[in-house]
Amino acid sequence: GKVELNEEEITSLPMFERARIGLSYLPQEASIFRKLTVRENLLVALEAQGKYGSEKNKKLEKLVQDFDIGHILENYGYSLSGGERRRVEIARSLAGDPKFLLLDEPFAGIDPIAVGDIQNIIRDLKSKGIGILITDHNVRETLGICDKAYILKEGRIEVEGTADEIANSEVAKKFYLGENFKL
User: Fold this and answer.
1) Residue 6's pLDDT is what?
2) For the chain, which residues make up each domain, given as ranges?
3) C-alpha closest to that of 124 among 174, 77, 87
4) Distance between CA atoms of 59 and 32, rounded to whole angstroms?
5) In the prediction, which pLDDT does 175 show?
C-alpha cells in the first residue's frame, strides 16, 4: 500500500522528513533511552527538533506539566514502570509539535490504571487538534477513545465505522471480535 498526507504520497520519505511535515511515530517496542534520565530523554528529543535555550526549557516545562512526570525527572529509563515509560515516550514524541501522532500498540505492557491514563492523554491530544492514529489489538481500550476505527484483514479494510458500528458489525464479530463481543 501507500501512505498519503494532504493528497501527497509520503510512503518512501525517511523518518526525519516525515517529522518535518508534522508526523511523529511511537513504536510498540520500548523506545526510551534506558541509561538516560527522564529529563535527559526529553532534552535529547527537544534538541533533535532544533529547540535550544529558553524555547527548549519552556517546552520541557510544558511536557513535564502536561504529562505529570516532574516526580520522575531524575529517574533513569530502565527504572520506569510500563505506564511511566509510555508517558515519557509520548511526551518525547511531542517534542517537535507534530500535527499527527502514530501510536503502535500504546496499551501493550501497561497496567489497567496506566491504560486509563494513556487514554486520557490521547483524548487531551485529540482535543488540542493533534491527529491520532492508533494500531492496537486491545479493542476495548482503543474503541473507547477513537472517532473512527478500521479492522484490517490480510492488509485490506474489512470493516470501518464508529466504535458502536464496529462493535455491532457482524463482519467484525465474525473475523475479529468474536460473536459475544460487547463494548
Assistant:
1) 86
2) 4-145
3) 87
4) 19
5) 86
Counting Cα atoms < 13 Å in the Cβ hemisphere of 37 gives: 10
N-terminal to C-terminal alpha carbon distance within the chain: 31
Max CA pair span of the chain: 56
Checking if the pLDDT of 138 tops 90, the result is no
CATH fold for domain 4-145: Rossmann fold (3.40.50)
Secondary structure (DSSP) of 113-175: HHHHHHHHHHHHHHHTT-EEEEE-S-HHHHHTT-SSEEEEETTEEEEEE-HHHHHH-HHHIII
Local confidence band at 87 (pLDDT 50, 70, 90 cut-offs): very high
Alpha-carbon separation of residue 99 from 23, 31, 125 (angstroms):
6, 20, 10
Give the β-pairing of 23-26 and 100-104: parallel
Question: How many CB atoms neighbour CB 34 within 10 A?
Answer: 12
Q: Are 142 and 134 in contact (CB under 8 A)?
A: yes
Task: Give backbone dihedrals phi and psi of 23, rounded to 5 degrees, phi first.
Answer: -105, 140
Crossing angle (nearest 10°) for helices 82-93 and 38-48: 20
